[in-house]
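Entry:
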Amino acid sequence: MADYKEVRGVKIRDYTTNPDNPIEGQVWYNKTDNVAKYEIPNVLTSWRTGANFNTAREQLMMFGTTSLATITGGLKPSHSGATETFDGTSWTEVNNLNTARGGAGQAGIYNEGLVFGGQTPSNTAACENWNGSNWTEVADLNTARSASLTAAGTDTAALAAGGYAGSPSGVANTETWNGSAWTEVNDLNQARYALANGSNAPYTNCLAYAGNQGGQILNESWNGTSWTEVGDLNKARTYPGGGSSSSTSAVCFAGGNPPGHGAETETWNGSSWTETSDCNTSKNRIAGCGTGTSALSGGGQTAPEAVQNNTEELAVNAPVGAWSTSGSMNTARLAAGAAGTQTAALAFGGGAGGTATKKDETETYNGTSFSEVNNLNSARSLGTGLGTQTAALLAGGDPPSAADTGEVEQWNGSSWTEIADITSRRQLASGGTTTSGLVFGGDNPNSTGITESWNGSAWTEVSDLNQARTVLGGCGASNTSALAFGGYYSPPGQGTVTETWNGSAWTEVNDMNNGRHVIAGSGVQTACLAFGGFPIPAGGTKTEDWNGINWVETSDLSTARGAVGTPTGTSAAAAAMGGSTPSDTAVTENWSGTSELIKTISTD
């Protein structure tokens, strides 16, 4: 048998403490703790709330992925032909099915799909093909059936198995589709209906699991010729959702086990099912699509006739981010402006002693350390910065001589120059670049929703925020795409409201989980990290991740603080520079969208 050195190329080394940068798979001996240790990626399996579709329903059909999907049909409680498409952010109503139905089978991708069988309310054998715009009737199934038969494949090579055709136990019939006709092949080992709904697996390599009114744990694998019973589910269920890429990788979620509705989720590795994170909402008669590691759930019912239109997205073993302490700023400060990326950033202005002393110092940051460069022309705090390390703007703020200012300065990589002013205000947010920027919110002296667009030479006032507010967070890529979140407004004080900007108007979207103000943010409209904020300590360490649809809490800052220099970086690689703890601080932390866990090897 090979020893560790033969496998890894090095011996197991002794360390007084853990090594600074161990590689994945490396084993070492910690002499202080007297144990062997190793490092693995820090990952998490969880469901994340997604965008609601337009028409609530149950027993609907869904095909596609977590970012491109189509839903159609269902009961609401009458039979529906409504069809909607998902672009990763929102659902859009498109052309209806020719035959309204629920509980059918489905196969394919978002713009090339197939729906077959279902209840109209009588059982139907009708089959329809979707081309991304319209439904076309094609050849019928040989056996009319409904009640969530299992299905897999594409619009030209699909499989249908099980379902309800009048018998209380369901049917075992299996049929394959070649793009023009259905052919009967070998039956399931056990007749049943109400099977898991949703699969991206090939029609020659798929699964059939769960089913029937009382709920089943039975799981069968199809190899293109015959069905074989394999490892059972841990929880018996009926009408669950599912996702699969093959007969060796699948997920089963929610579903009923009368008299309740379930949220339990199980993943399949080809030999057994493992229970993992529950759905956020317990439901039955739910739709699903995707794979065993990245699935989408939608609709269903939370109680009889209580049909739903919400969706959730599952990520299996997704990386967990973390903050790490980096080199401190040369000048401790709060409410500074900032621009750039985590490894090429600029920090400027700010305040000391609770903003009583205005700062004009400018520092560059390389991801590890800070260097002093030329100062601002006008010292101030509570302004907002945008751009890059070599091309940045500082807009507005609180100078020593006035309550607020509209002065704007531009950085060219070596010095600051005064340019066209904005409307006087402080505690505002921003996003974009020195040629396409946006500033919004703030106070002058009351909370405002004023929004101004920059084209590289002049500012233009555009549509206001829906919620006037001050000391808010913001980010964005340009003057046509930005995100505003949190802040202070009355009522309730600590804000959670989030709005997106499309170049002409602000739209309210899903709220943050934690209300706070003087909050920092990094990223763009569809992928943003929000961190820190007042009150401390409640909001000072909180970090939330935005995916373009909703916010989820993630790993906290190490140092609780608000008024952090912002925005700097992306949602996957950000920097939190300085701030108020509530004392002035120079502490800087770097965010990584991935992190590692150190594990101990047990000898028990």
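Residues 4-41 form one domain.
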